[in-house]
Amino acid sequence: MVKKMKKIVLYLFCILMTIFFLYPLYFIVISSTKSNTKIFENPFLPSPDIHLENYSKAWAAGIGRQFLNSLILALGAVVVTAVFSCMIAFALTRLRFRLQGAVRVYFVMGMMVPIQSIIVPIAFMTNTFGLRDNYILLILLYSVFWMPLSIFIITGFLYSIPVSLEEAAVIDGCSIYKVFFKIILPLIKPAIATASIFVFMYTWNELLTAMIMIGKSELRTLSVGLLNFVGAHNSDYGALMAAILIAILPPFFMYLFMQENVVKGLTSGANK
Questions:
Q1: 59-100: pLDDT as tens digits
Q2: What is the pLDDT of residues 160-197, one digit of tens each?
Q3: What does pTM read for this prediction?
Q4: Residue 230 pairs with which residues in a beta bridge?
Q5: Is residue 190 within 8 Å of 261, Cβ to Cβ?
Q6: 245: domain range?
Q7: How many domains does the chain have?
Q8: Backbone angle region of 133, left / alpha / beta, with phi > 0 → left and psi within -120 to 50 → alpha
Q9: Which of 73, 83, 169, 230 has its CA 20 to 30 A from that of 241?
Q10: Residue 70 located in a structural domain
């Protein structure tokens, strides 16, 4: 009887938590097809009057261009972070050199420094050297600040791969470059997928740095563009919800298709 009660309580708790986390998504979906009045009249049920023009309003406000801008930044940061993180993680786990432990601690310490803590000097230097509205600089900034976490994830995964695989390849005549590209990279795909998810979602949703570093309206990201729907005197909440729904689709589908690799990448290093 006690076991049944525990199961019932557990299932009820899981159902409540599921509702709690899914309701915001449900609210966005139903509100994206409502007028401003209907959103506040009944926030829990969909309206019989469907206003699909909210999506056209969102698109006309520049969401399409901003969507592309965010995609360029996010994919650029993912590629740069993945390339350098893989090489650094390989060096930290497989090569032997002086100050190796200090370098590892250095990258771990980098996880403790958020970009917001030094955004003022970065903005000052950017304005001084005339580097605003520069996507390459922004991609490098995002990559640098997310590289420590990516290195941490990939390093933990590499420790779970036996060194004997690489030793056998070296005995067969493989150079260190072939070992890295032919053996290591295919094996650490789950870790790369995990790190890429984090980098993509952070870059896609990042607001403060994009607001400071980008001034031209045609270069604004999606997170900055969403602010245009809320004003001091008038706000178009229907179009805002439609724009938010468009904004959350890429991270949602990216995680949906890569979730298996993400789970492997987060748990593989735990057995070591």
A1: 887 888 899 999 999 999 999 999 999 999 998 888 888 887
A2: 888 888 888 888 888 888 888 888 888 888 889 889 98
A3: 0.83
A4: 235
A5: yes
A6: 62-271
A7: 1
A8: left
A9: 73
A10: yes
